[in-house]
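To whoever picks this up:

The nightly regression suite flagged Protein-disulfide isomerase as changed. Nothing in the input moved, so I suspect the structure step. Input below, exactly as stored in the fixture:
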Amino acid sequence: MAGTKNNPVTARRGPSLNLILTAVVVVVAAAVIGGVLLANRSSGTGGTAQDERLVPPGAHTLSSVEGGKVTLVEFLDYQCPACAAYYANITKKLEQDYQGRITIVTRNYPLQMHPLAQPAAKAAEAAARQGKYKEMYHALYDGYQSWAVDGRDTSDDTAAATAKFEEYAKGIGLDLEKFRADVSSAEVKGVIDRDTADGQALGVDSTPTFFLNGKRFEPTGGTYPDVDRELRAAIDAALAG
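Regenerated output under the current build:
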């Protein structure tokens, strides 16, 4: 077969339009991918900013599954009546039923309208510094009526609440002197301030507020059993997905 003679016009012509467009697409794609990688590196964990606001390093867990498919995050206020009611009717049993199957994260979001919410959060964080966060979390909610309310009103008796928190601390085996020092420490206050700032950045404006796999959980039910069914259905769907 005879060889094909080069067309002198084609030989002198520069790169084709298709070739140029392909090169442009490749360059743009590389720039976009590079930007994503840079953003991920700057976050420190490779996650998004929202991921880190929801579950920062050192966040407290009631249940933890390494590499699990489902993470439930709750922003809570220990003196909030709704949070206490959710605990009694929904989250305490949910924690038991899904233990080891999903990751459950709790974050502080003390509201200014609740005068003992900040001291209670400090008690929980101080217990965490001795490895007993979960125990204090349960003590605070299980004993809610004994420190958070005064009759039918929200209590503002800091001294009585402090005595009750120290009683819980002794009951769960904490070093009481260290507990007292940690309650007053800048480190504990810093954790609570970080949680509150993260919640504000995520649009949290009331408690409890839940996020399931990064998406805000907005129940439609009018009763606690209704909300419980909705939340469990959402968790089960995420586990099956």
